[in-house]
Write a structure and sequence with these properties.
The complex is a heterodimer of chains A (about 180) and B (about 170). Chain A has one helix at about 5, and strands at about 20-30, 30-35, 45-55, 60-65, 75-85, 90-95, 100-105, 110-120, 130-140, 140-150, 160-165, 170-180. With about 180 residues, chain A is mainly beta. In chain A, the strands form 2 sheets. Chain A has an 8-stranded antiparallel β-sheet with strand order 1-12-3-8-9-10-5-6, with no helix packed on it. A 4-stranded antiparallel β-sheet of chain A has the order 2-11-4-7, with no helix packed on it. The radius of gyration of chain A is 16 Å and the shape is globular. Chain B is mainly beta and about 170 residues long. Chain B has a single domain (about 5-170), classed as Sandwich (Jelly Rolls), CATH 2.60.120. Chain B has an 8-stranded antiparallel β-sheet with strand order 1-12-3-8-9-10-5-6, with no helix packed on it. In chain B, strands 2-11-4-7 form a 4-stranded antiparallel β-sheet, with no helix packed on it. In chain B, strand 8 and strand 9 (about 120-130) form a beta hairpin. Classes of the chains: A mainly beta (about 180), B mainly beta (about 170). The interface of A and B includes residues 77 and 81 of A.
Protein backbone atom coordinates (compact mmCIF):
# COMPACT_ATOMS: atom_id res chain seq x y z
CA UNK A 1 0.00 0.00 0.00
CA UNK A 2 1.36 3.46 -0.78
CA UNK A 3 2.49 4.91 2.50
CA UNK A 4 0.69 8.15 1.84
CA UNK A 5 -2.57 6.27 2.00
CA UNK A 6 -1.60 4.77 5.31
CA UNK A 7 -0.44 8.13 6.60
CA UNK A 8 -3.78 9.70 5.85
CA UNK A 9 -5.80 6.73 6.95
CA UNK A 10 -6.84 5.71 3.47
CA UNK A 11 -7.18 1.99 3.33
CA UNK A 12 -7.82 -0.21 0.37
CA UNK A 13 -6.52 2.02 -2.42
CA UNK A 14 -9.62 4.17 -2.61
CA UNK A 15 -9.95 7.21 -4.82
CA UNK A 16 -7.55 9.80 -3.50
CA UNK A 17 -9.33 12.74 -5.06
CA UNK A 18 -6.88 15.51 -5.78
CA UNK A 19 -3.97 13.58 -4.28
CA UNK A 20 -2.93 11.27 -7.09
CA UNK A 21 -0.37 8.54 -6.69
CA UNK A 22 2.36 8.68 -9.30
CA UNK A 23 4.64 5.91 -8.05
CA UNK A 24 5.49 3.90 -4.96
CA UNK A 25 8.87 2.24 -4.55
CA UNK A 26 9.42 -0.45 -1.93
CA UNK A 27 13.16 -0.99 -1.89
CA UNK A 28 15.80 -2.93 -0.02
CA UNK A 29 19.45 -1.88 0.23
CA UNK A 30 19.50 0.32 -2.87
CA UNK A 31 21.91 3.19 -3.42
CA UNK A 32 19.23 5.71 -4.35
CA UNK A 33 15.51 5.94 -4.97
CA UNK A 34 14.88 7.64 -8.31
CA UNK A 35 11.56 8.94 -9.59
CA UNK A 36 12.01 9.53 -13.29
CA UNK A 37 8.43 9.84 -14.54
CA UNK A 38 7.03 12.51 -12.29
CA UNK A 39 4.39 13.99 -14.62
CA UNK A 40 5.75 17.46 -14.08
CA UNK A 41 3.56 18.76 -16.87
CA UNK A 42 0.44 17.68 -15.02
CA UNK A 43 1.19 18.78 -11.45
CA UNK A 44 2.76 21.98 -10.18
CA UNK A 45 2.91 20.66 -6.62
CA UNK A 46 4.31 17.20 -5.81
CA UNK A 47 4.11 15.40 -2.48
CA UNK A 48 6.78 12.85 -1.58
CA UNK A 49 6.44 10.78 1.56
CA UNK A 50 9.00 8.25 2.75
CA UNK A 51 9.46 5.76 5.56
CA UNK A 52 12.98 4.40 5.51
CA UNK A 53 13.83 2.25 8.54
CA UNK A 54 17.33 1.53 7.38
CA UNK A 55 19.56 4.31 6.02
CA UNK A 56 23.23 3.48 6.35
CA UNK A 57 25.01 6.67 5.24
CA UNK A 58 23.06 9.83 4.33
CA UNK A 59 19.74 10.84 2.84
CA UNK A 60 19.52 13.79 0.48
CA UNK A 61 17.06 15.00 -2.14
CA UNK A 62 18.13 16.07 -5.60
CA UNK A 63 16.31 16.86 -8.82
CA UNK A 64 17.06 16.26 -12.48
CA UNK A 65 16.67 18.21 -15.69
CA UNK A 66 17.22 15.24 -18.00
CA UNK A 67 14.65 12.73 -16.88
CA UNK A 68 16.88 11.14 -14.29
CA UNK A 69 19.84 10.33 -16.50
CA UNK A 70 21.73 12.37 -13.92
CA UNK A 71 20.79 14.42 -10.89
CA UNK A 72 22.00 17.95 -10.25
CA UNK A 73 24.69 17.96 -7.56
CA UNK A 74 25.53 21.64 -7.10
CA UNK A 75 24.04 25.11 -6.86
CA UNK A 76 21.21 24.47 -4.42
CA UNK A 77 20.27 26.79 -1.56
CA UNK A 78 18.75 25.32 1.56
CA UNK A 79 18.07 25.99 5.23
CA UNK A 80 17.24 23.40 7.88
CA UNK A 81 16.08 23.74 11.47
CA UNK A 82 16.49 20.68 13.66
CA UNK A 83 15.74 19.73 17.24
CA UNK A 84 16.67 16.50 18.99
CA UNK A 85 15.17 14.56 21.86
CA UNK A 86 18.48 15.08 23.65
CA UNK A 87 17.96 18.84 23.56
CA UNK A 88 20.19 19.78 20.67
CA UNK A 89 18.59 22.40 18.43
CA UNK A 90 20.34 24.09 15.56
CA UNK A 91 20.57 25.35 12.03
CA UNK A 92 22.13 23.81 8.94
CA UNK A 93 22.22 26.09 5.93
CA UNK A 94 24.06 26.60 2.68
CA UNK A 95 23.96 28.83 -0.37
CA UNK A 96 25.97 26.35 -2.43
CA UNK A 97 24.66 22.97 -1.45
CA UNK A 98 25.02 19.68 -3.28
CA UNK A 99 21.40 18.75 -2.63
CA UNK A 100 18.09 20.59 -2.40
CA UNK A 101 17.32 19.06 0.99
CA UNK A 102 19.28 16.94 3.41
CA UNK A 103 17.88 14.64 6.05
CA UNK A 104 21.29 14.21 7.58
CA UNK A 105 23.80 11.48 8.01
CA UNK A 106 23.11 8.10 9.43
CA UNK A 107 25.23 5.20 10.53
CA UNK A 108 24.48 1.63 11.50
CA UNK A 109 21.15 1.63 9.72
CA UNK A 110 19.04 4.35 11.25
CA UNK A 111 15.54 5.57 10.46
CA UNK A 112 14.43 8.51 8.37
CA UNK A 113 10.76 9.32 7.86
CA UNK A 114 9.22 12.42 6.41
CA UNK A 115 7.34 14.26 3.73
CA UNK A 116 8.37 16.78 1.11
CA UNK A 117 6.43 19.23 -1.01
CA UNK A 118 8.04 20.22 -4.31
CA UNK A 119 6.77 23.23 -6.22
CA UNK A 120 6.85 24.34 -9.86
CA UNK A 121 9.17 21.55 -11.01
CA UNK A 122 7.82 21.51 -14.54
CA UNK A 123 7.61 25.26 -15.05
CA UNK A 124 10.68 26.44 -16.94
CA UNK A 125 9.92 30.07 -16.08
CA UNK A 126 10.08 29.52 -12.33
CA UNK A 127 12.60 28.24 -9.85
CA UNK A 128 11.95 24.87 -8.25
CA UNK A 129 11.29 24.95 -4.51
CA UNK A 130 10.87 22.33 -1.78
CA UNK A 131 9.77 22.23 1.84
CA UNK A 132 9.98 19.26 4.19
CA UNK A 133 9.20 18.03 7.68
CA UNK A 134 10.86 14.85 8.86
CA UNK A 135 11.76 12.72 11.82
CA UNK A 136 15.20 11.18 11.75
CA UNK A 137 17.66 9.20 13.80
CA UNK A 138 21.28 10.27 13.97
CA UNK A 139 24.28 8.57 15.48
CA UNK A 140 25.05 11.45 17.85
CA UNK A 141 21.83 13.52 17.99
CA UNK A 142 19.53 10.55 18.43
CA UNK A 143 15.97 11.15 17.26
CA UNK A 144 15.36 14.63 15.92
CA UNK A 145 12.85 16.57 13.86
CA UNK A 146 13.87 18.55 10.85
CA UNK A 147 12.01 21.09 8.82
CA UNK A 148 13.56 22.87 5.92
CA UNK A 149 13.28 24.71 2.68
CA UNK A 150 15.35 24.41 -0.45
CA UNK A 151 15.54 25.76 -3.96
CA UNK A 152 17.50 25.51 -7.15
CA UNK A 153 17.93 29.05 -8.51
CA UNK A 154 17.68 28.09 -12.16
CA UNK A 155 14.73 28.78 -14.39
CA UNK A 156 14.36 25.44 -16.09
CA UNK A 157 12.00 22.49 -15.99
CA UNK A 158 12.87 19.59 -13.72
CA UNK A 159 11.65 16.11 -14.43
CA UNK A 160 13.25 13.76 -11.94
CA UNK A 161 13.51 13.43 -8.16
CA UNK A 162 16.11 11.40 -6.30
CA UNK A 163 16.39 10.30 -2.69
CA UNK A 164 20.14 9.88 -2.63
CA UNK A 165 21.87 7.54 -0.22
CA UNK A 166 25.47 8.63 -0.69
CA UNK A 167 27.92 5.82 -0.12
CA UNK A 168 25.40 3.74 1.78
CA UNK A 169 22.08 2.10 1.11
CA UNK A 170 18.39 2.81 1.60
CA UNK A 171 15.69 0.39 2.68
CA UNK A 172 12.01 1.20 2.96
CA UNK A 173 9.13 2.75 1.04
CA UNK A 174 8.77 6.05 -0.78
CA UNK A 175 5.67 7.29 -2.56
CA UNK A 176 5.35 10.23 -4.93
CA UNK A 177 2.03 11.96 -5.44
CA UNK A 178 0.82 14.80 -7.58
CA UNK A 179 -1.60 17.35 -6.24
CA UNK A 180 -4.16 17.78 -8.96
CA UNK A 181 -4.87 21.34 -9.93
CA UNK A 182 -8.60 21.00 -10.41
CA UNK B 1 -15.89 13.01 -5.40
CA UNK B 2 -14.57 10.49 -2.93
CA UNK B 3 -11.06 11.03 -1.73
CA UNK B 4 -8.77 12.41 0.90
CA UNK B 5 -7.89 15.66 -0.81
CA UNK B 6 -10.63 17.32 -2.77
CA UNK B 7 -10.19 20.32 -4.97
CA UNK B 8 -12.43 23.24 -4.07
CA UNK B 9 -11.32 26.22 -6.10
CA UNK B 10 -8.38 28.04 -7.59
CA UNK B 11 -7.75 31.72 -7.76
CA UNK B 12 -5.32 33.94 -9.56
CA UNK B 13 -4.83 37.60 -10.13
CA UNK B 14 -2.52 40.00 -11.92
CA UNK B 15 -1.67 43.43 -10.59
CA UNK B 16 -4.11 43.10 -7.73
CA UNK B 17 -3.74 44.96 -4.45
CA UNK B 18 -5.05 41.95 -2.59
CA UNK B 19 -7.08 38.92 -3.38
CA UNK B 20 -10.15 37.53 -1.66
CA UNK B 21 -10.80 33.82 -1.87
CA UNK B 22 -14.42 33.62 -0.84
CA UNK B 23 -16.83 30.81 -0.04
CA UNK B 24 -14.14 28.13 0.02
CA UNK B 25 -14.77 26.92 3.59
CA UNK B 26 -17.94 25.06 4.45
CA UNK B 27 -19.35 22.41 6.75
CA UNK B 28 -18.02 19.73 4.39
CA UNK B 29 -14.47 19.76 5.78
CA UNK B 30 -12.71 20.58 9.04
CA UNK B 31 -9.25 20.93 7.50
CA UNK B 32 -8.21 22.78 4.34
CA UNK B 33 -5.02 22.81 2.34
CA UNK B 34 -3.97 25.83 0.30
CA UNK B 35 -1.13 25.73 -2.22
CA UNK B 36 0.47 28.99 -3.23
CA UNK B 37 2.82 28.80 -6.22
CA UNK B 38 2.97 32.38 -7.41
CA UNK B 39 3.58 35.61 -5.58
CA UNK B 40 5.18 38.26 -7.75
CA UNK B 41 5.47 41.94 -7.03
CA UNK B 42 6.73 44.25 -9.77
CA UNK B 43 7.28 47.20 -7.49
CA UNK B 44 9.06 46.06 -4.35
CA UNK B 45 9.82 43.39 -1.78
CA UNK B 46 6.61 41.86 -0.58
CA UNK B 47 5.40 39.49 2.10
CA UNK B 48 2.12 37.75 1.39
CA UNK B 49 0.05 38.15 4.55
CA UNK B 50 -3.16 36.29 5.25
CA UNK B 51 -6.39 37.38 6.88
CA UNK B 52 -9.65 35.51 7.24
CA UNK B 53 -13.03 36.41 5.78
CA UNK B 54 -16.10 36.10 7.95
CA UNK B 55 -19.53 34.74 7.01
CA UNK B 56 -20.65 38.21 6.04
CA UNK B 57 -17.89 38.44 3.44
CA UNK B 58 -15.80 40.94 5.37
CA UNK B 59 -12.03 40.64 5.68
CA UNK B 60 -11.13 40.47 9.36
CA UNK B 61 -8.48 43.11 9.92
CA UNK B 62 -8.98 43.63 13.64
CA UNK B 63 -6.23 42.69 16.06
CA UNK B 64 -7.67 39.23 16.67
CA UNK B 65 -4.74 37.07 15.59
CA UNK B 66 -1.64 35.59 17.20
CA UNK B 67 1.18 34.22 15.08
CA UNK B 68 4.70 32.85 15.40
CA UNK B 69 7.18 32.12 12.63
CA UNK B 70 10.74 31.04 12.17
CA UNK B 71 12.50 32.35 9.07
CA UNK B 72 15.01 29.86 7.71
CA UNK B 73 17.68 31.56 5.64
CA UNK B 74 20.40 29.87 3.61
CA UNK B 75 22.51 33.02 3.86
CA UNK B 76 22.18 34.06 7.51
CA UNK B 77 20.87 33.12 10.94
CA UNK B 78 17.20 32.33 11.49
CA UNK B 79 15.18 35.20 12.96
CA UNK B 80 12.03 34.60 14.96
CA UNK B 81 8.92 36.65 14.47
CA UNK B 82 5.91 36.50 16.73
CA UNK B 83 2.99 38.72 17.60
CA UNK B 84 -0.11 38.63 19.75
CA UNK B 85 -3.28 40.60 19.13
CA UNK B 86 -2.16 41.46 15.65
CA UNK B 87 -4.00 42.02 12.39
CA UNK B 88 -2.90 39.04 10.28
CA UNK B 89 -1.79 35.42 10.42
CA UNK B 90 1.78 36.01 9.23
CA UNK B 91 3.83 35.52 6.08
CA UNK B 92 2.55 32.94 3.63
CA UNK B 93 5.13 33.79 0.94
CA UNK B 94 7.81 36.33 0.10
CA UNK B 95 9.21 37.83 -3.07
CA UNK B 96 11.93 40.38 -3.71
CA UNK B 97 11.47 43.27 -6.08
CA UNK B 98 10.16 42.30 -9.50
CA UNK B 99 11.58 38.81 -9.61
CA UNK B 100 9.63 36.06 -11.26
CA UNK B 101 11.19 33.14 -9.41
CA UNK B 102 7.92 32.76 -7.56
CA UNK B 103 7.31 30.68 -4.48
CA UNK B 104 6.18 27.39 -3.02
CA UNK B 105 3.89 27.25 -0.02
CA UNK B 106 1.47 24.87 1.64
CA UNK B 107 -0.93 26.25 4.22
CA UNK B 108 -3.31 24.26 6.41
CA UNK B 109 -6.34 25.88 8.00
CA UNK B 110 -8.25 24.10 10.77
CA UNK B 111 -11.88 24.48 11.83
CA UNK B 112 -12.65 27.69 9.95
CA UNK B 113 -16.35 27.04 9.49
CA UNK B 114 -17.07 25.94 13.05
CA UNK B 115 -18.53 28.93 14.83
CA UNK B 116 -17.75 27.38 18.21
CA UNK B 117 -14.03 27.13 17.54
CA UNK B 118 -11.10 29.41 16.94
CA UNK B 119 -9.49 29.05 13.50
CA UNK B 120 -5.93 27.73 13.38
CA UNK B 121 -3.30 27.83 10.66
CA UNK B 122 0.09 26.39 9.93
CA UNK B 123 2.32 27.26 7.00
CA UNK B 124 5.53 26.09 5.43
CA UNK B 125 7.01 27.85 2.44
CA UNK B 126 10.17 28.32 0.42
CA UNK B 127 10.99 31.56 -1.35
CA UNK B 128 13.84 33.22 -3.15
CA UNK B 129 15.42 36.23 -1.44
CA UNK B 130 18.01 38.31 -3.26
CA UNK B 131 20.65 36.74 -0.98
CA UNK B 132 19.43 33.15 -1.19
CA UNK B 133 16.71 30.90 0.12
CA UNK B 134 14.19 32.34 2.58
CA UNK B 135 11.73 29.84 4.05
CA UNK B 136 9.13 30.23 6.77
CA UNK B 137 7.60 27.75 9.18
CA UNK B 138 4.77 29.22 11.17
CA UNK B 139 1.55 28.90 13.10
CA UNK B 140 -1.31 31.28 13.76
CA UNK B 141 -4.67 31.46 15.44
CA UNK B 142 -7.72 33.67 15.02
CA UNK B 143 -8.93 34.12 18.58
CA UNK B 144 -12.62 34.60 17.95
CA UNK B 145 -15.07 31.73 17.69
CA UNK B 146 -16.95 32.62 14.55
CA UNK B 147 -17.74 31.17 11.16
CA UNK B 148 -15.01 31.77 8.58
CA UNK B 149 -15.82 31.28 4.90
CA UNK B 150 -12.70 32.45 3.08
CA UNK B 151 -9.37 34.20 3.26
CA UNK B 152 -7.57 37.23 1.93
CA UNK B 153 -3.97 37.54 0.75
CA UNK B 154 -2.43 40.97 0.68
CA UNK B 155 1.01 42.52 0.46
CA UNK B 156 2.84 43.85 3.47
CA UNK B 157 3.97 46.70 1.24
CA UNK B 158 0.54 47.54 -0.13
CA UNK B 159 1.75 47.01 -3.66
CA UNK B 160 0.00 45.13 -6.43
CA UNK B 161 0.68 41.45 -6.91
CA UNK B 162 0.43 38.52 -9.25
CA UNK B 163 -0.85 35.55 -7.32
CA UNK B 164 -1.94 31.94 -7.85
CA UNK B 165 -3.51 29.80 -5.13
CA UNK B 166 -5.55 26.63 -4.94
CA UNK B 167 -7.77 25.41 -2.12
CA UNK B 168 -8.48 21.79 -1.22
CA UNK B 169 -10.57 20.12 1.43
CA UNK B 170 -8.94 17.39 3.48
CA UNK B 171 -11.26 14.48 4.23
Amino acid sequence: MPIGQAKFGLLGGVDLGSLELIQTQDVSAVSDIDFTSIEEGVYNVHFLVFALPNVTSVLNLRISNNGGTSFISSGYQRALQYGSVAGSFGEDKSTSATSMLTFGSSSSGREKNGYVYLYNLGDSSKYSFATEHSMNNHSSLGYYFGFAGGLLPTTEAHNGIQLEGGTGTLTGVASLYGIKES
Amino acid sequence: MAGSLEFIKSTSGTNVASIDVTDCFSDKYDVYKITLTKWHNPSGDSNALLRLIDSGGSVISDNEYDNAQLALRSYNTYPQDQATNTSNMGTMAYTPLNQTYNVGAVIYIFNPYDNSSFTFLKVQNANRHSSGLLAFKGIAVHKVAEQITGFNLYSSQSATQDVEAKVYGVK
